[in-house]
Amino acid sequence: MEYFSKKSALCALFGFLLILALCSSLGYAGDIVHEDDKAPKRPGCNNNFVLVKVPTYVDGRGVNEFVGVGARFGPTLESKEKHASYDRLALADPPDCCSKPQNKLTGEVILVHRGNCSFATKANVAEDAGASAILIINNHTELFKMVCEANETDVDIGIPAVMLPQDAGENLEESLKNNSLVTVQLYSPKRPLVDVAEVFLWLMAVGTILCASYWSAWSAREAAIEQDKLLKDASDEFFITEGNGSSGVVDISTTSAIVFVLIASGFLLMLYKLMSVWFIDILVVLFSIGGAEGLQTCLVAFLSSFRWFDHVSESFVKVPLLGPVSYLTLAVSPFCIAFAVVWAVFRSVSFSWIGQDILGIALIITVLQIIRVPNLKVGTVLLSCAFLYDIFWVFVSKLWFQESVMIVVARGDKIGEDGIPMLLKIPRMFDPWGGYSVIGFGDIIVPGLLVAFSVRYDWLSKKNLRRGYFLWAMIAYGLGLLITIMALN
Description:
Blueprint: H1 6-20, E1 32-33, E2 51-58, E3 61-70, E4 87-91, E5 109-113, H2 119-128, E6 133-137, E7 143-144, E8 161-164, H3 166-177, E9 182-184, H4 196-233, H5 237-245, E10 250-251, H6 254-274, H7 277-304, H8 310-314, E11 316-319, E12 323-326, H9 327-345, H10 352-370, E13 371-372, H11 376-396, H12 398-401, H13 405-411, E14 423-427, E15 436-440, H14 442-460, H15 470-488
Parallel strand pairs: 1-7, 4-5, 5-6, 6-8, 10-13
Antiparallel strand pairs: 2-3, 2-9, 3-8, 4-9, 11-12, 14-15
């Protein structure tokens, strides 16, 4: 049974280019900036940079929990909230804390502004004045790693120093100016080495390639059997050609593999330059269309495998602009469209990742059915070009753009959104910092093309699992993905 139309093939080709443009987006995170090579570790200034939770209480009522980053200097913070003390917050006078504060401190945490002197100087002044810790408000919304200046000698600091983003500092400052009693806690929970979300993400990626590969091999075998029947039952060459041309499957050539990567580079650069809220909305619409098409293709193929749906899957009606469409497709399509629309409308809610993953997996599986690698030479060229593409846009692009183009686009840094929709994501379950573990579609599709080819080759050449290429290709992908997750952790 053939499930792929020319419309599906065009959608898959466009989706492949869009996905290839974001080929590697595995677990990138963090908005902390500093060129550490200009201020290396040294005695008294050798702390690891850690994120710090700052729960705040106004007049005894918990209101906000801010996130800061600890300094290279000073003592380390408690890792558990129950061991962190509650300390009153005081506003520095002068605000920069570059000279002795006018207000007398008796163990309060002092809130100061960045600038006019070094971080270590501020911490020394605050410690001499009797502060128990110092919170430094950054002059930007992101966090900044606080290091010691090269010519500083007095870095034996006995109080913790934490950098807060500008909006968090302004919030605390406003509460203090309203004469409210503000107390804070400072502690730095440790992240688990491996979160359960990463295990599920690994299983999702490997499972998606397994399903797509076996479906691709089954479709190829069915097409080969049908071709043999045509050769035996008919000698009409036109009839045979007509049967081949209706498959809706697109084989990648060596030239198109290179062109795909070049076009994807241009597309990625366009995303980087035009990144905005309205542009993300366009991506959401495109993803919804592709996801709905993929979900429809997968559901029709799945339901067609049951005898109960034989009649509706083999009966067709002519639809204007679309041509012959099966009754099963007509019945499934409204559900798929509604599912994609509901996800797009409610994509900001906490559980929307479930819908995004369902649409994403369906789109990936559909692309792996329609876009195929015909031989090992093309697969080698495609993966080699994708490897160079990754290296360039993740690392080398920093030399021209002062930031990694692919990471900025994948995270949606310029628009404040939680990443673009072309990602599989799972919330981190046991991480006290929360967030998501993510993997880009390209990290599944590009190697998945080669794995799917190996299954088709093994089945058509009648190789068993041990003697064939599929088992080893699948092990290599699973192991490579596992090593990548370990390296990121």
